[in-house]
Amino acid sequence: MTLRTTSLPSGLIAAGLALLAACSPPRADTAPAVLVEPAAQPAVTASDVGFSIASPIACELGKDCLIQQYADHDPAKGPASDYTCGIATYDGHDGTDFRIPDKIAQARGVAVLAVADGVIAGVRDSEADWEVGAYNQSAIPSNMACGNRVFVLHGNGWESQYCHMRRGSLAVKDGQKVKAGDVLGMVGQSGWAAFPHVHLTVRKNKVPVDPFNTSSACSPTAVTSLWQASARQQMAYRGRQVLNAGFASGPVTMDAIERGGIPAPTAASPALVAWVRAINLKAGDIQTLTIYRPDGKVLKASPPTPLDRNKAQYMLFTGERPASGTWRKGTYRATYAVTAGTKTVLYHEFALNLP
Ligand SMILES: [Zn+2]
After folding, report:
1. Please, are residues 318 and 291 in contact by the beta-carbon 8 Å criterion?
2. Which domain holds residue 306?
3. Nearest-CA neighbor of 46 among 201, 228, 180, 198?
4. Fewer CB in a 10 Å sphere around the end CB: N or C, the chain?
5. Structure pTM?
6. Residue 301 C-alpha to ligand 1 middle, in angstroms?
7. Residue at a domain's end among 232, 254, 270
């Protein structure tokens, strides 16, 4: 039995119907074609400050990892705006959180990379990583919030800071010279980290600068970026995204998704459940999760209910018991769609083959 997690990489969803049509083989069943409204992209201009940076993480954004939270561009206490004036941030956040899908990815190892040439300063590698379900911010003093971390000094007052790295994974020492793209260590979950990720803060003369938009004000239309041209496409703005999706043989929990490796159902499973965890959903968004039988008919669809408030992450699952004792052989497909008003703003498909 194989579990194809997706037939449409989430990073490509925003490209819309043309891409969907090009990527999907002709089908005889009844799943609808979906026109996805792309996330609004501000026009990006390269900064002229004489400093540019590469990606801090060795994964493909939108596919193997994603951005959970950008820096807050709203100086007021309480409200928060990411650099496009969107919701993918929280009050006072001074950097960017690059998130990996689950603890399996953390254990396998996803490298944290120097964003520019520089010299290492301020290495810490002794803090434990949180286990799933154990996170307790109040147990960590604020001076240790960054957990295991590295500072890189780039000259002319520029520095970069990488937080929450995996204990024992640091690959550099104080005073060592590094080049852009050199491995500093691995993504972890140490310090104030509710999930495995690397937090990147870039500073000029000790003042945080958001590499996505060097202006302190947010803008949905035009921004000035520190990203090198080669990183620009990967760093395109994404708000709502699917972090994980799959099938299970019963109800799932957020902790089980976070651990990773949820076993797929078999023909003998007592239930067939499709599940999704999405991030940065907005109040009023309506999610639908639908499972299709091998003959293309709907097996089960979740009731569409609007979200009462913004959700940094949200888990949804739906499922059914077999009509007879076992499941019919064939390919079961699931579709997950998020609509805002009349527009579909996120769409994801995945399939399960029961041989
Ligand atoms: Zn952060």
Report:
1. yes
2. 2-38+240-354
3. 228
4. C
5. 0.90
6. 35
7. 232
